[in-house]
Amino acid sequence: MFEVIFLQFLNGLDKGAAYALIALGLTLVFGTLGVVNFAHGALFMLGAFCAVLFRQLLTLETVTIDPTKLSPWGQPLEVRAPLVQAWFGDFGAVLVNYSVPASIIITIPIMLLLGILLERGIIKHFYKRPHAEQILVTFGLAIVAQEVIKSFFGPNPIPQPMPTDLRGAADIGAFLGMQANVITYPIWRLIYFLFSAAIIGGVFAFLQFTTFGMVVRAGMADRETVGLLGINIDRRFTIMFGLAAVVAGLAGVMYTPLLPPNYHIGMDFLVLSFVVVVVGGMGSLPGAVAAGFLLGILQSFASMTQVKALIPGIDQIIIYLVAVVILLVLPRGLFGRRGVMEA
Amino acid sequence: MTLLKRGLSRRRVLQTGMAGIIGSGVAPLMFTKGAWAQEFCNNPTGDTVTFGLNLPLTGAYAEEGADEQKAYELAVKHLNGEGDGGLIGVLTPTALKGNGILGKKVAFVTSDSQTKSDVARAGATRMIERDGAIMVTGGSSSGEAIAVQGLCQELGVIFMAGLTHSNDTTGKDKRRYGFRHFFNAYQSGIGLGPVLGQEYGKDRRAYHLTADYTWGWTQEESMKAATEALGWQTVEAVRTPLGAGDFSQFLTPVLNSGADVLILNHYGNDMVNSLTQAVQFGMRDRQANGKDFQIVVPLFSELMAKGAGANIKGIFGTSNWHWNLQDPGTVAFTKSFGAAYGAPPSQAAHTAYVQALLYADAVERAGTFYPPEVIKALEGHEFDGMGNGPTLYRAEDHQCMKNILVVQGNDNPTSEYDVLNVVQEVQRDVVTYDPAIFGGDLGPAEPAPLCA
């Protein structure tokens, strides 16, 4: 039974890492700019498609027709040769194999630029408008982003293979000195968990230990006073929006080997990440992370056969059930502060 | 001339004669053929006749939907006398002439069902009531098929189902206006069971992950029946939501459940995701109960196999049809589809194309679009040349009886389309069963309902 519970706990951490990472960017935007950003799921999706685009560029091929051979449907056979391997040899093959992690190189600048353009171009005009209008405009932006991606990449999921060395499962039980082949877990899911932890830690460290972060935190606490000190807080908040977009984009990139992305993948996560933010407390970064892991772990345990035998269908509603209970007991969420989104 | 001089005009004579003919009862003999022609839903009056294509272009089964659309477009071309004619020249017997249907050109309208039953029903309603569809066809899920054929029964429009594999479609939910060419879960069990017994032995413990809707339930039931008949035990059968995406929380409990076979009752993107994630969990490298752990996918498609890549190698399942069969019908269709789209057709495309042709052929044989007559032409119809050997559209449940395939993921594919090997062609008499076992009632064909 220990193995079953341990594995389910690991699965919860892995799911929670994804929820926490997405919710972190969402709450970062809300905490700094006060904007309820329904386009955050779309930023996750756009990040995932940075990985898709990168791989498509790496796997460009030359196509030549061999008239001497026919396909089974009677057409001349197309002979395809990968370009990158032709240009770079073995290094090209390695690059294709590691296309998902390598795509981080292009994802960071693309998402940063996209985030800044989005904030300067559209979001800033809605700072002083009601939250309902912010939700409408950002939701509209999400739909536009989806349709653009759908028109370029089609509606179907596009598989992104993980590097061959990182396929399969790691024997964690043997690593911990237990019986071999009892507690095994997919290597990439462990990497995703560690990656999320590193990003979350990096964001916290950035806000905690840099001057930039200190100014941003001061601006989050009292925007007007910081402005009166002659600090251009708007510019810093714009960069924070870009940073939130980068975090969402990186979460999307690293998720692609686990779930082939399509244009709708962001929407699938959006509702869940909002629940995470609300449960954690609006605008609270530690709250978003804690709630992400809490809900991920609970969802995983609720999927156990033994639990479902007691309460059928609990795995489908556990997250919302817990959200209701927490909000009844703690109306501001786990780490919510007085005055945030309160009239 | 004399009569006219006595005051009887030619008009008067014609009127009297006509009245006599009508009065003597000759009229029913002269005009009854086609008298009902004015009294059914979307009776085509112009030069064209419209098919309503209800396709899952987005959602969990979107790949199948896109391939079905290509097949329907090809079928419409062939029916209208364009292209190489495809299977029209191979279908026997056939009344098709390549000049449309009853001399009317075939047109079509489409609707994206999003792989959702309610959206499929709404789309079919729109195509029937707004666009005047004479026949509705398509779909890649049994939930959609059952919802749409119920609607078609209400509105008096024939539904030629696309890819639907649930026993319920031609079982407890069968309808007089609904017809299925695709095989079903029960037939998968009959075909696959003996092969699994031969390959994996009689002492196995199976764990099912099942898509939580009509197809998954009947697939699970049929596979349990087939494997338990071999002597296998069922450890657990867990339902998963359609379109779940991440199946990890359902896969984790499999690892230490005591099972040594995982049966994935999933299809489309769900199947690609659950299989890929199961392989990531190391299930194909595991040992359980002293045996190699195995994964079985009872319903396979080439599109899924392509999406799952190398993960599919060596895995057993069943298919309705495969493009690398060598009968004249398969060769003709693969060539025609490949020339049009640069890739071989999937089983979803095949069944869609065949259904469009079979409807057109039935109308030609009936000599009318009046649905009850078309239904009569399809019920009990025997045909051949469509790639599955001699086939019967069974009158009792509107299920096609034909050969089905046991397939296996190809260990050494020669191209991205060469992903499945046909292990066995299970003969029609082996997979034929008593339609009474699934119950249901077809309902009446007449009086034909009139749509709004």
Describe the SSE topology.
The complex is a heterodimer of chains A (343) and B (452).
Chain A: H1 2-33, H2 40-58, E1 61-70, E2 76-82, H3 83-88, H4 90-97, H5 99-102, H6 104-121, H7 131-153, E3 169-171, H8 172-175, E4 184-186, H9 187-209, H10 211-221, H11 223-228, H12 233-255, H13 265-280, H14 285-302, H15 305-310, H16 314-329
Antiparallel strand pairs in A: 1-2, 3-4
Chain B: H1 2-5, H2 10-23, H3 26-31, E1 48-55, H4 62-79, E2 105-112, H5 117-129, E3 135-138, H6 142-155, E4 158-161, E5 178-180, H7 185-200, E6 205-211, H8 214-230, E7 233-240, H9 248-255, E8 261-265, H10 268-280, E9 287-288, E10 291-292, E11 294-299, H11 302-308, E12 316-319, H12 328-341, H13 347-366, H14 371-378, E13 381-383, E14 391-393, E15 400-401, E16 404-409, E17 420-426, H15 428-431
Parallel strand pairs in B: 1-2, 1-3, 3-4, 4-5, 6-7, 6-8, 8-11, 11-12
Antiparallel strand pairs in B: 9-10, 12-16, 13-14, 14-15, 16-17
Helix pairs in contact in B: 4-13, 5-6, 7-8, 10-11, 13-14
Strand content of chain A: 5-15%
* CATH hierarchy, class of the largest domain in chain B: Alpha Beta
Quickly name the level 1 CATH class of chain A. Mainly Alpha
| Number of helices, counting only DSSP H or I runs of 4 residues or more of chain B | 15
Q: Please give the most extensive interface between any two protein chains, plus how many residues each contributes.
A: A-B, 43 and 43 residues
Detail the poorly predicted runs of chain A. none
Describe the sheet with the most strands of chain B. Answer: 7 strands, mixed
What structural category characterises the helix and strand content of chain A? mainly alpha
Round the mean pLDDT of chain B to the nearest integer and report it: 88
Q: How many helices of chain A does DSSP assign?
A: 16
Terminal residue distance of chain B: 53 Å
In percent, how helical is the residue content of chain B? Answer: 25-40%
